[in-house]
Structure formats: structure tokens, C-alpha cells
Design brief:
201 residues; 52% helix
Length: 201
């Protein structure tokens, strides 16, 4: 039996995924969690072989959790299941060393096949999305610029961002000015929109 962990914060969706995978004769869902913070401990405790992870999770996003699994529990494969079918999101997922990337609107049989595929060591990625990612533009922002923009997009003010990232408020403002210029945005809000639509945040 393939031991699977499901991480999805929407209860109905998580329940549906657990039920769907439970219909497969060779798959057993050994854990289901609603927060990114629960993924690594649950995967360890239940000896999960495959973790099916949503990107947008409370506590810790799915890509960060997938990266941690890759580093600390390399025997557990990761399959990102998301509605964010943007090339930039796929590139971030691949950078996090995920084993597979599947859109939530994929046919149900694709999910079980993807679970089997990643366990067998194959990289399972939606074909159309892979081609789009191949042609997409790399993110022009540095890691620190992305950190500042991400926190700004979450509603933190300049002083709060500065305190959390151990920077001065002036440095945060300089980062945001640079980000807006690099993305050819009209202002911070526009820069956030561009980054989100490109899948960089």
C-alpha cells in the first residue's frame, strides 16, 4: 500500500481527496492535515511515502513545507495539487524539488496515477503547464525583494516589514521602489498584482 498524506485547508476539498484516494486498492491515506506546519511532523509520524500538498496553506505555505520534506524526509515524495496553474508557480515548485505538480481541475484518475508516478521516482507535471513554464520569463526579483513584497501583499506596513526582516524602514522603502521599477508597475499594489499573476509570490 502507498502511504499518503493529504494537506489541504479547505475541509470539503480535503475530505473529497481523502475519499477519492481511499477508493484506490493500492493507496492508503495515513494522515490529513489543514496547516503547512503539520505536514512534516505528520509525515514523520505516519511514515508517509507521498505527500499531496496544496500551495495556499495557513501557518506555512505548501512549497516551503515541500522543500522541508525534501531536505528532512527525502523518502517522502511531494505532489503539489493547486488551482494556481501559472508558469511562475510551477517554476517555484520545481525549485522546491517537488516530485509532481497537478492542477485541481485535473480528472480524478490523474491524481492516483500521479501519486503512483512520483513514488516510482518519475516527475509528474501537467504537460501544457510545463511548456508554458519553459517559455516564461524568470523572476527578476531577488529573494529579499520577494520577501518584502510578499509581506507587503499580506498587509504589513513598512515598519512591520522592517521589524520582521531586521531591516530599517528606509531599506524596506528602497526595496519596494526597486521592485516597482523592476516589474514596471505603477505602484506597490500594481507590483503585487504583477508578481501574483506571474506566480512569483
Amino acid at each position: 500500500m502507498i502511504r499518503v498524506l493529504v494537506a489541504e485547508d479547505m475541509h470539503i476539498v480535503r475530505g473529497a481527496l481523502v475519499a477519492l484516494l481511499g477508493l484506490e486498492p493500492d493507496i492508503e491515506v495515513v494522515a490529513d492535515v489543514a496547516s503547512g506546519l503539520e505536514i512534516l511532523p505528520a509525515a514523520r509520524a505516519k511514515q508517509a511515502q507521498v505527500a499531496v500538498i496544496d500551495i495556499d496553506l495557513p501557518g506555512k505555505d505548501g512549497l516551503t513545507a515541500a522543500g522541508e520534506l525534501h531536505e528532512q524526509l527525502p523518502g517522502c515524495r511531494t505532489l503539489i495539487l493547486t488551482s494556481l496553474g501559472r508558469p511562475g508557480t510551477l517554476r517555484r515548485a520545481l525549485d522546491a524539488k517537488v516530485s509532481g505538480f497537478l492542477l485541481k481541475d485535473a480528472p480524478p484518475d490523474k491524481l492516483a496515477n500521479a501519486v503512483r508516478g512520483v513514488l516510482a521516482g518519475r516527475r509528474m507535471v501537467d504537460g501544457d503547464l510545463a511548456l508554458a513554464a519553459w517559455d516564461s520569463v524568470d523572476c527578476p526579483l531577488t529573494g529579499r525583494e520577494l520577501d518584502v513584497l510578499r509581506m507587503t501583499s499580506q498587509g504589513y506596513g513598512t515598519v512591520e516589514v522592517a521589524a520582521r526582516l531586521y531591516l530599517s524602514a528606509g531599506t524596506v522603502r528602497n526595496y519596494l521602489t526597486t521592485v516597482v521599477a523592476k516589474l514596471n508597475g505603477r505602484n506597490r499594489v500594481d507590483a503585487i498584482r504583477i508578481a501574483e499573476e506571474s506566480g512569483w509570490l
